[in-house]
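Tokens in:
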């Protein structure tokens, strides 16, 4: 199990896409390379949008999952 360094926690619940992606993109710029941003959201669109954003920007999607209506995801800043 890899230790993760947590950089920031975002509460994106109640925001509709693309706003969660926009907030994540802004947050990535405020943390150090290697830091992990953990977030929660309620718009099911993030299940597709966050992995796509990570692929296009080169950031690492550490995890993504849904628990009831809340989606949890973690993204590591790679560059």
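Residues out:
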């Amino acid at each position: 199990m890899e230790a993760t360094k947590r950089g920031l926690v975002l509460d994106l619940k109640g925001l509709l896409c693309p706003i969660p992606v926009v907030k994540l993109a802004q947050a990535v710029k405020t943390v150090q390379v290697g830091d992990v941003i953990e977030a929660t959201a309620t718009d099911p669109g993030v299940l597709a949008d966050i992995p796509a954003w990570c692929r296009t920007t080169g950031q690492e999607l550490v995890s993504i999952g849904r628990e009831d209506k809340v989606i949890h995801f973690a993204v590591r800043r790679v560059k």
